[in-house]
Write a structure and sequence with these properties.
The protein is mainly alpha-helical and 75 residues long. The chain has 4 helices and no strands.
């Protein structure tokens, strides 16, 4: 909810991760987890592709859109 964990000590945290923190704060941890599980299962049953199923989760779509908008301002 309030902490980012990075693998391999990344030097730059993707800006969309900050939106995920906001999602946790807005919806609470159990609801975010439920949202991810529910949508991953639904998407996986359609696509049979775990990567595609994850990328189509609405919170992920929102986060990537946010990162795209922030990138325009950050140069």
């Amino acid at each position: 909810g309030k902490t980012l964990y990075c693998v391999n000590s990344e030097s730059r945290i993707p800006s969309h991760e900050y939106l995920h923190i906001a999602q946790y704060n807005k919806h609470n941890i159990p609801m975010v987890i439920f949202h991810y599980l529910q949508n991953f299962i639904k998407n996986y049953l359609k696509s049979k592709n775990p990567g595609m199923a994850f990328n189509e989760i609405p919170f992920e779509l929102e986060a990537r859109e946010f990162e795209g908008k922030i990138g325009k301002y950050m140069g």
